[in-house]
Design a protein that fits this description.
- The protein is α+β, with helices and mostly antiparallel strands.
- It contains 16 helices and 23 strands.
- It has helices at 48-66, 108-118, 124-127, 136-146, 150-155, 164-172, 185-188, 203-209, 245-252, 311-319, 330-334, 374-400, 417-427, 439-451, 458-462, 477-494, and strands spanning 4-10, 14-21, 26-33, 45-46, 73-80, 86-89, 99-100, 159-162, 182-184, 194-195, 200-201, 218-220, 223-228, 238-244, 261-265, 269-276, 287-292, 300-307, 344-346, 364-366, 407-410, 431-434, 467-471.
- Strands 17-18-16-15-21-22-23 form a seven-stranded mixed β-sheet.
- It is globular.
């Protein structure tokens, strides 16, 4: 009887394969980074073939590291960077262009044109999303219009569109030899082409965005058996779970009740609150999205606040300013000073996402004096993530009418204890790190496991969740208010830099 599950976690900067046991514990993990392609300011691309090669490599390594056979794996789940857009030739399996990453802003002019015609929220009631360069529809329109032959291939049914989950599953299940072309409801809800109420591609939206229906994948639940892997290392293993990365983290954090929230600190920063089986439409600048759909059960929805730059700011300090040589050096550098020295860093490299939605914003460092040093800049960079999270949480509590009791956290930055304490302080809410912090991969494994009966249901999964560390707020209210007031001044100065 199979005793393990595997998850492919394809993120913005790397691809991982993690093997979990029945208790939700990690038994093996392999990871490989891929190249960030930056051809012009604001343009961010990935080589989809490189991502696929890395997926094969890490899956093979993780299986070998675990010392297991294919027959020991009950199922495979897939989780992915979400809005990143791939268009490829059905006959050859070759991408027609590099993937356009969710951070890419080349469609800003299209966003402005659509907003001018009907306002920035013209599609929000149906899709839960404002007009923004973030989502897939306009990225796909750009590819169809700008890549020679792409539109004619798509209209003939010879080109396929997908977010990264779709691209990987098509390749995993056979590629040009009958690969499955599908996506789950969570990823579909990020394209701006799906109706939240019907969970289907909307004909009106396809006309508005000039997207031929022949290019689109089939929409499926987040947890069901879709087919089998045909890749040698995992051949015959059922593919049974798909979730966009942030929804996967919500599932991995076992936030299955309305009002429960998690925040993931990765390349960007993403807070989701489960709102139950009824979508809550935001009035405070948040996204309404599908949280998950388990089999034939009713879908659950979430409010989401998306921050474009979190861990990516630490990478920028490392790679562009060379302030540090490794990302994990940032905490020690920030601890060299007692406070931020009145320095504030707004990392609006791709504009500001939730709750501001200002594509014209750009990054600034404010409050510099001759007193400021590299430690203050490092501390301001870490604090920027916490301030942006507070912006999102305030909007989330306003929309939902729910004051959260604690914030469950995960992702690469939660090992930074200085940041986690400051996060609790600036929110005035306890911050809780679980014992298993790879909750994105875990959520995909949970979805796959539920589909094949590896676990009995969500209640069994909740029993696995346990606390590793909890940070309680200790900052005085006057100090908190003063810091946050200065942050808001810095935000104001970053706005409308472009245009």
């Amino acid at each position: 009887m199979p005793t393990y599950l595997a998850a492919i976690d394809q993120g913005t900067t790397s691809t991982r394969c993690i093997v979990f046991n029945r208790d939700g514990r990690i038994v093996a993990s392999a990871q490989k980074e891929h190249t960030q392609l930056l051809p012009k300011p604001g343009w961010v691309e990935h080589d989809a073939l490189e991502i696929w090669r890395n997926t094969i490599e890490v899956a093979t390594q993780a299986k070998a590291q675990a010392g297991i056979e294919r027959s020991d794996l009950a199922a495979l789940g897939v989780t992915n960077q979400r809005e990143t857009t791939v268009l490829w030739n059905r006959r050859t399996g070759q991408p027609l262009h590099n993937a356009l990453v969710w951070q890419d802003t080349r469609v800003d002019a299209l966003v402005a044109r659509y907003a001018h015609q009907g306002g920035p929220d013209r599609f929000r009631q149906k899709t839960g999303l404002p007009l923004a360069s973030y989502f897939s529809a306009l990225k796909l329109q750009w590819l169809l219009n700008e890549v020679p032959g792409a539109r004619s291939l798509s209209e003939a049914g010879d080109a396929l569109f997908g977010t990264i989950d779709t691209w990987l599953i098509w390749n995993l299940t056979g590629g040009v030899h009958g690969g499955l072309h599908l996506t789950d409801v969570t990823n579909a809800s990020r394209t701006q082409l799906m109706d939240l109420a019907t969970l289907s591609w909307d004909p009106q939206l396809l006309r508005e965005f000039e997207i031929p229906s022949a290019v689109l994948p089939r929409i499926v639940a987040s947890s069901e058996v879709y087919g089998e892997v045909r890749l040698d290392a995992l051949a015959g293993v059922p593919v049974a779970g798909i979730l966009g990365d942030q929804q996967a983290a919500l599932v991995g954090q076992t936030c299955y009740a309305a009002g429960e929230a998690k925040n993931t600190y990765g390349t960007g920063c993403f807070m989701l609150m489960n709102t139950g089986t009824v979508p809550v439409h935001s009035k405070a600048g948040l996204i309404t999205t599908v949280a998950y759909q388990l089999g034939s059960a009713a879908p659950c929805y979430a409010l989401e606040g998306s921050v474009a730059i979190a861990g990516a700011l630490v990478q920028w300090l490392r790679d562009n300013l060379r302030l540090i040589s490794r990302s994990d050096e940032i905490e020690a550098l920030a601890r060299e000073v007692d406070d931020n020295g009145d320095v504030y860093f707004v990392p609006a490299f791709s504009g500001l996402y939730a709750p501001h939605w200002k594509a014209s914003a750009r990054g600034i460092i404010a409050g510099l004096t001759r007193y400021a040093n590299r430690g203050h800049i490092a501390r301001a960079a870490l604090e920027a993530t916490a301030y942006q999270t507070r912006d999102v949480l305030a909007a989330m509590q306003s929309d939902s009418g729910i004051a959260i009791k604690e914030l469950r956290v995960d992702g690469g930055m939660v090992g930074n204890e200085l940041l986690m304490q400051f996060q609790a302080d600036i929110l005035d809410v306890p911050v809780v790190r679980p014992r298993v912090v790879e909750t994105t991969a875990l959520g995909a494994a949970y979805a796959a496991g539920l589909a094949v009966g590896f676990w009995s249901g969500p209640a069994a999964l909740a029993a696995h969740w346990s606390i590793d560390k909890r940070w309680e707020p200790s900052m005085s209210e006057p100090h908190r208010a003063a810091l946050y007031g200065s942050w808001q001044k810095a935000i104001a100065r970053s706005l409308d830099w472009c245009g």
